[in-house]
Amino acid sequence: MSVFNKLTIEICVTCNYFQRRLDWMLSSILQQQGEVPRIIFNVAYPKNNGNPTTEDVCSFFKDKGLNIKETVYPDEQSIHLRGVVRNKQLAETDAEYVLFSDSDMVYDPLFFEDLQNQLLHTELKNETRCISSKRISLDKQYSKDYFNKVDDQTYPCVVDNVAELVSHWPIFKVSRSCGAGYFQLANVDNIRKNYNGIYVDPQKTRDERKYQRARSDRQFRHMIGGFVTITTKPQYHLNHERDNEEGCTHLTIQR
Predict the structure, then answer these.
(1) Residue 109 near residue 33, CB atoms below 8 Å
(2) Structure pTM?
């Protein structure tokens, strides 16, 4: 494929105490194969958060060649309104497509080659709705035990053959619905021409500061006409501790 036919896809995430799983996600992007689109990785995060910090993880993977943009906020409270954060990420992108995701995903090595082929050569090239796909959510307890008891890596690091590694983990479920944030792909030009270039009206967002509830994602999908589900190469969700399961408002443990 000619370089002039490549798409640019900007992956937008937030990271708050998810640095180790973010490390695995970036490892999987580093290990993409084939005719890979131009990938920009935009991570929004609070300053000096986590161990390692998000700053450390970004610096490490920039040195490995990834194109990483940092959207930095002064404190944790600033990123709880995820839709407002995504407004900023969307406003600053130069990509044709923006992929809103969570910071705990691992992609098959051919994931983005396949996605680019679909966006260029199928009816998806004219799609204006939100594009979603299923994810493989890995077993909760296995994932938690691995990171908390088995994993002895020093972060940040490149996790070798990361997609192959997690493909052998037990599965919690395969989700086919368009979830809160793990895969929402949208055409940037369409959003700017028809929807004021925003993810959500900041005065009407249903996200909550007190609880980590990102309800603006549903508002976004409704705004641009709903969503269509496609088939992709595998994407794996590195399951983790959750606020409601741990009985707190905002977990501050390293994940």
Answers:
(1) yes
(2) 0.94
